[in-house]
């Protein structure tokens, strides 16, 4: 086996040096065996950073890596289909269906829309054997690929939850996995995302805005650069920096629901996606493990809310016009996570955002939606 190559500490992006943040690596095989040292390591990662790489290269994780490659093949077939076929059912619900490019705010906030299209498949529907998926991927082989991927992701995230419960000395009903049972309704979703090259979307449709996830845990697969995170409580926390893709690993991060369930002890990862190479098509697979819909917790504003209610409220915030998002409390988009500074000094804001015509266009959009 070739020796591991450490990622660079910085990379050139948009004419400047941007940090590449270090990420702890957790061994899935040891976690599956509930190795005490690995349990402590994953707990500390969630308490201190809110993210880690999960090494799946051992015998227990390789099946998921194979499922990832099969899912990528399916994604290429699906996203190359005509828009009419991809959008056969549209967005059936917030966690199910197809979202075209430009449905949400983009990576650079004001005046931008996202630069990706996404297909979301519900775990609950896959379990029932009746998933609503568009015709381009409706044959039995494709459905089996989706079922395999969701099954593998579900197992992996439950193993992580169990380890975190053990690490926090939780017992009985208070263990995290006991509010994530497969037979109870939830918005757990497999999301497949295709980021288009900038020359195809224009400079007003770029990436994915800065946010925390609605999930308890997010299991993310991408072989390409573009993911940026803002580490909590570190010297450079004001600056967004890249995560280097690591072969054989998934990037895992804590979402709002698990942070709330832990009594705010765990860190929910602030992240976004930017066009690292604006000429390439970027593909990523995200499994959002979410708590049962009726799970109750106290959110970042001190409210008693259910997991289902938090999901619906935050999804609406994601799809609101950027000016509404700017006026709303940050607790929703960022899950109550505090940033080191109000301004992002990395200087990546496009010049067109200062154009009054852009602001006028978005004000018109708000008026239409109202």
Write the layout of secondary structure elements.
Blueprint: E1 10-13, E2 16-19, E3 25-27, H1 28-32, H2 36-48, E4 51-55, H3 62-79, H4 83-86, E5 91-93, E6 96-99, E7 116-122, H5 123-128, H6 140-167, E8 189-195, H7 198-201, E9 208-211, E10 217-221, E11 227-230, E12 241-242, E13 249-254, H8 256-261, E14 270-273, E15 282-289, E16 296-298, E17 304-306, H9 307-319, H10 322-327, H11 330-333, H12 356-369
Parallel strand pairs: 3-4
Antiparallel strand pairs: 1-2, 4-13, 5-6, 6-7, 7-8, 8-15, 9-14, 10-13, 10-15, 11-12, 11-14, 16-17
Features:
370 residues, alpha+beta, Jelly Rolls, 9-stranded mixed beta sheet, 4-stranded antiparallel beta sheet, 12 helices, globular, disordered C terminus
Structure description:
This protein is an alpha+beta fold and 370 residues long. It has one domain: Sandwich (Jelly Rolls). Helices cover 33% and strands 21% of the residues. The protein is built from twelve helices and 17 strands. The protein has a nine-stranded mixed sheet with strand order 3-4-13-10-15-8-7-6-5. A four-stranded antiparallel sheet has the order 9-14-11-12, with no helix packed on it. Strands 1-2 form a two-stranded antiparallel sheet. Strand 5 and strand 6 (96-99) form a beta hairpin. Residues 341-370 have low confidence and may be disordered. InterPro entries: DIOX_N (IPR026992), IPNS-like_FE2OG_OXY (IPR044861), IPNS-like_sf (IPR027443), Iron_ascorbate_oxido_reductase (IPR050231), Oxoglu/Fe-dep_dioxygenase_dom (IPR005123). GO terms for molecular function: metal ion binding; oxidoreductase activity.
């Amino acid at each position: 086996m070739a020796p591991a190559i450490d990622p660079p500490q910085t990379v050139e992006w948009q004419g400047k040096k941007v940090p590449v943040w270090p990420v702890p690596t957790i061994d899935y095989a040891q976690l599956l065996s509930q190795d005490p040292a690995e349990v402590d390591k994953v707990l500390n990662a969630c308490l201190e950073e809110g993210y880690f790489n999960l090494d799946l290269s051992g015998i227990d994780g390789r099946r998921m890596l194979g499922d990832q490659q099969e899912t990528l093949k399916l994604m290429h077939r699906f996203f190359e289909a005509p828009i009419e076929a991809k959008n056969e059912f549209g967005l059936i619900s917030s966690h199910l269906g197809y979202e075209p490019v430009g449905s949400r705010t983009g990576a650079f906030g004001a005046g931008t829309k996202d630069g990706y299209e996404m297909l979301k498949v519900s775990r609950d529907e896959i379990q029932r054997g009746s998933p609503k998926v568009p015709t381009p991927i409706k044959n039995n082989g494709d459905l089996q690929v989706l079922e395999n991927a969701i099954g593998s992701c579900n197992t992996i995230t439950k193993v992580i939850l169990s380890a975190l419960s053990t690490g926090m000395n939780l017992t009985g009903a208070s263990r995290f996995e006991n509010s994530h049972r497969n037979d109870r309704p939830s918005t757990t979703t497999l999301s497949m995302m295709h980021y288009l090259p900038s020359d195809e979307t224009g400079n007003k449709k770029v990436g994915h805005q800065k946010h925390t996830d609605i999930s308890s845990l997010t299991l993310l697969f991408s072989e390409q650069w573009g993911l940026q995170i803002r580490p909590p409580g570190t010297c450079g926390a004001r600056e967004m920096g890249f995560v280097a893709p690591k072969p054989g690993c998934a990037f895992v991060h804590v979402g709002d629901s698990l942070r709330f369930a832990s009594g705010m002890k765990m860190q929910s990862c602030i992240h976004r996606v930017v066009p690292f190479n604006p000429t390439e098509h970027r593909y990523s697979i995200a499994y959002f493990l979410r708590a049962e819909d009726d799970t109750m917790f106290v959110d970042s504003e001190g409210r008693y809310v259910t997991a289902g209610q938090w999901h619906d409220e935050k999804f609406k915030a994601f799809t609101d016009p950027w000016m509404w998002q700017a006026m709303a409390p940050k607790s929703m988009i960022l899950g109550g996570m505090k940033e080191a500074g109000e301004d992002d000094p990395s200087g990546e804001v496009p010049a067109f955002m200062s154009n009054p015509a852009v602001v006028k266009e978005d004000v018109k959009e708000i008026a239409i939606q109202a």
